[in-house]
Amino acid sequence: MKQLSSAEIRDMFLRFFESKGHSIVPSQSLVPKDDPSLLWINSGVATLKKYFDGTVIPENRRITNAQKALRTNDIENVGHTARHHTLFEMMGNFSIGDYFKDEVIPWAWELLTSPEWYGLDPEKLYVTVYPADTVAKEKWLEVGMIPSHIYENDDNFWDIGEGPSGPDTELYYDRGEAWNNTEHPEENYPDGDNERFLEIWNIVFSQFNHLPGLTDNATYPELPHKNIDTGLGLERLVSVFQNAPTNFETDLFLPIIRKTEELSGARYGEDATLDISFKIIADHARSVTFAIGDGALPSNEGRGYIIRRLLRRAVLHGRKLGINGPFLNQLVPVVGEIMHSYYPEVQENADYIASIVTAEEARFNKTLSDGLSLLDGVMADAKAQDGIIAGAIAFKMYDTYGFPYELTEEAATDAGLTVDRAGFDAEMKAQQERARAARGNASSMGVQNALLTDLTTASKYVGWSELSVEAAQLENIIADNQLVNVAETGQVQAIFDITPFYAEMGGQVPDKGTVTNTAGDIVATVADVQVAPNGQHLHTLDVQGPLKVGETYRLDVDLAYHAAISKNHTATHMLDQALRNILGEHTTQAGSLVNDKLLRYDFTYNGAVSEAKLQEVEDLVNAKIIENLPISWIETDIESAKQLGAVAVFTEKYGEKVRVVSIGDFNIEFDGGTHAKTTAELGMFKIVSEQGTGAGVRRIEAVTGQGAMNYVKDHDALLKNAASLVKAPQLSEVSDKIEALQAQLKEAERQVASLEAKLASQAAKSAFNDVKTAGNFTYITTELAVESMDALRQTADNWKQNQPSDVLVLAANLGEKVNLLVAVAPQAIAAGVKAGDLIKAIAPAVGGGGGGRPDMAQAGGKNPAGIQEAFAQAVTWLAAK
After folding, report:
1. Quick one: 6-249 is in which CATH superfamily?
2. Subcellular localization, per the record (predicted)?
């Protein structure tokens, strides 16, 4: 067998399919773009869904890629099995309505067995096929697959719900008898429960359409266009070529494990339990590095929660290896070195990624200490009760403090306790349901629209330079998803042979305008423009007069609307550049919206942007507007564009020719949108707001031109109104007037507080003489006419000086709200009375809740009528003690 590195195996796969006419699509970001159905890119086909559902027709219907993917549904298995990973690479070849079984099966056989390529022994290859798919079986026999190596399996049908589906065929590599680890001989076959037969490649024949209501795949209709979707796991294939017992003993993981050995002093391969920790650290270090490199950041929700969980799990396993300080940051450059040949950006951004990891490790080490203290308290409470740690508490340890269930269970076992696993699982299931609901109900793969997919009418966009077309021929009219020749009224879709209307793309909204006939009558208004699957501009028209296919019409873009959008689009590029200049190059675009009113720009950044930095950004953009920089564009090939220094937004797939927009020498980007002619046309740039929208993603909204003027006018009006209210003759005096009013208010509040304290003190003196007994304890309950919790606390402080009772219960009626306070003397605490427990018992009576320390606790509520009931419950509670 050939000795191949992981880089060579990946490269050979891509070169093979390139030789078969496929276009190589670079690996896309792990963070999905415009796909709410996915939290992460989780497969090789995930980034190509727009081609498979017919939304977009690719320039080349043959595609190949090596796509990084991230899955955490089996995270608990990582490290315990040979091949479970959170981050993995899936190599695939795809046909979008081009070739099918007659081509893909011979190519798979050639790649795997030809000496020119992988050169695997044909006798070690096996396949499974769907029983009804006789074509695939015959094709495998034709290429030379040994008949006894073909297994029929009813599970070989790929179906994830409504949309494309079909039979599949899976390829297995026989690692030999030495790997036959099963104790059940009947499992010794491909797809059986064994390590001998290793699944390496799955080829899906996407040929049926799973329509709503259908449950039997035998009744699924054929797709308008049949597709091929394959996935070959890089990590698995590397383990074959490098004769590794598991994926972890390959060049994709061993350097990380060796570095972990160096940091820990432990040795991989000497202790099976410690080996699990080595594997988990190696796997999670890769995932965290790539996820942060693609713009996701640690947080308590969504993708950020996944990163935080992976990182914390790795830190905990580092402790098992004897590493007590930060260490994962030192594994980031190791990951970058391993993956450099195909993912150079990881190594280039290693310092930034490591800085995020370092900060998160430090945060968790503090949290971990707090969590360990909490665990001690949890176990003490369990010992004092029934010896069982509740599932909800174990889940809190897992969810809030990053403790895997196994860690809590291990600590509980050492202390002679048990954990309610069923309760934990119930809490976990509830969280998973919440996560699924948060991702929405968008389908994972749409159903093809045959009409639009087959529509190949030529259509040329000229709106970059022309906003009016005198004679555009109407090529197609679509009404109710059918081609028609005439439209009298209503809303239809239309394609013209030439158009000045911009179609919605890249966050920029489409143009609006009118359609005029040769007689000069407006016969339709343009309500929307989208890109059809084959690239045409598909206009949505509100028809007022007859439209006929084959006739010519004048098309006019709404100039004012178009100009406002173009200014905001130019400002988006300038904002993007300013953010990278001031916040750092790791700040990357995460989404945008450009319309005639404003621009909205989402970007990755760890934390809020300070007011000072925002002002720097705004000042830089306005400085470039004042410089009146020219805005120009050219069309060129992608490599020339990169040499010019053009920035690619996201990791978008670009065609052979790309449009590059330059704003003087300030900014140059790949872009297909419309722009102002010079920066001076923007007039002014004003940031309206900055806020977080999710884990590690910030959003800036800004305005330009007339929008900026309106914003300034509105704020000027507000300032003048404020000046009137504070009686400031000049706007410049408003601040001084406000400061004077604040000083007066502060003095008035001080006087009120002083008076309130005196009244409380007088009331308390009387109350402190009214000491009663409940069981073994003395108590005082009283309602004070005060307006704040501070007044209650001050009264409690006065009570502490003499402690006329064991327990003090105070209440304040605030009209629609209630404040409660409980204080307990040291001798009562020693006897088992805790303020926090008592406040929790009585707070429901006033419609609230609270907590606190053993000596003092407080609560709030919304039912003043329940104050006397709360006092009564306090007496009952004390009597029971």
Report:
1. Bira Bifunctional Protein; Domain 2 (3.30.930.10)
2. Cytoplasm
